[in-house]
Amino acid sequence: MSGVDIQRRLDEVERALLNRWPETRIAPSLERIALLANLLGSPQLSYPTIHIAGTNGKTSISRMIESILRSYGLRTGLFTSPHLRSFNERIQVGGEPVGDDVLVANWLDVKPYIELVDAELLAKGEPRLTYFECLTVLAFATFADAPVDVAVVEVGMGGEWDSTNIVEADVAVFGPIDIDHADRLGGSLEAIARTKSGIIKPSSIVVSAAQQPLVEKILREAAELTESTIYFVDTDIVLHNRAMAVGGQVFSIRSVSGEYDDVFLALFGDHQSDNAAVAIGAVEAFLGGGTQPLSVEVLAEAFATVESPGRLQRIATEPPVIIDAAHNPHGAIALARALSEYFDFDDVTLVFAAFDDKDVDGMLRALSESVTRVILTTAPSDRARSPHELAEVAQRYFSESDVSIDADPVVACERARVLALAAEKGAVVVAGSISLLGVALTAAQENGWK
């Protein structure tokens, strides 16, 4: 097929997925996706897997794990969500988004089986397979077809009933767990933690970020019930000598299997070195069962080149424009700390949008001490909260003159850039909704932001 035909077919694939239940709706059962996977020969069992859950940081942790494994010469599969611009970003092989032609071909292979399962579900009065169920199986089939040596799989939402949980992972990994998606995962921290702990498989190795005491207790209980070994950052994996550096940061880590001094990470924010500690522990667990240290040279290569799009990512320099995937209070706190500790801006304009189910008050409260003003705009989704409603919340934490509205997110970003250029050390930060980041990225590319 020509390039035009491939693009047309890719658009058809995306429309077919979007025409299903959105990924924000959960079918609380693995039976549906297991039926589909079984018809395809259980592709997710044809390679070893590292499975990552958590409220924040799981995409960055996943990318770091993948980068280390790839630096070891392994052919990697990486499945993350959500995407910023193209859904190809979610399915990567060998560190690159899977090609349009491969994605289309693999979709055509799995589509007849999806339709078979759809028909069976409809006959029982159940809805068809969801967007995320189909995309997950497409990723697993793509990795099997590649083939990959190892898959790094990020949970979509929750854990126990998440579509990705049909994998049999030898290593389960947890980023920080906090309250988010409470309407779907349970209204308490305990309920959310228990749901996420459901990814731990029998006799596996578990590596976790530092957690609140209740969450740590729940993860330890889950590990004990499954006869798994568990390691925590700050207890078993300890960071020290953390310092800023040009283009990132430097730190040392005493991990389960070895010590790593003066490690350079090409990402900003203390939370990213925390994520790096989790990633190191996870790869130690995968490659040597937690008994062999990693190669210092391999680790240096992996962390010097790792990227985490949409996580404190600078997409322009004149003026500086930073996009960050903070979309809950925990993420906003990490962003605020990074802005204060890793940058020397004296005037920051925040472009902010959020979905209806998000804790807007908690996010804006966290960010108010680190930004000068806020422009409220609209996230590109039918789940977006109106900028006027956002402004009512923002006025609790900003003066009236520092709160404004531009419903069009591109216009909001352009006005923020004008304000930043007028300041001596001005900058723009775009946050609150991951879908908003994609708009900023596209605007930067199409409008030639330098």
CATH architectural name of the largest domain: 3-Layer(aba) Sandwich
Shape designation: globular
| CATH superfamily label of the largest domain | Mur-like, catalytic domain
- Strand residues, percent: 15-25%
Taking the alpha carbons of the first and last residues, their distance comes to: 36 Å
Characterize the main sheet: 8 strands, mixed
Number of discrete domains: 2
Description:
The structure is a single chain. The protein is α/β, with parallel strands linked by helices and about 450 residues long. The protein has 2 domains: about 5-305, UDP-N-acetylmuramoyl-L-alanine:D-glutamate ligase (3-Layer(aba) Sandwich); about 315-445, Alpha-Beta Complex (Protein-Tyrosine Phosphatase, Chain A). It is about 40% helix and about 20% strand. It has helices at about 5-20, 30-40, 60-70, 100-125, 130-145, 180-185, 190-195, 215-225, 270-290, 295-305, 330-340, 360-365, 385-395, 410-420, 435-445; strands spanning about 50-55, 75-80, 90-95, 95, 150-155, 170-175, 205-210, 230, 240-245, 250-255, 260-265, 315, 320-325, 345-350, 375, 405, 425-430. The chain has an 8-stranded mixed beta sheet, sandwiched between helices. A 6-stranded mixed beta sheet has the order 12-13-17-14-15-16. The chain is globular and about 60 Å long.
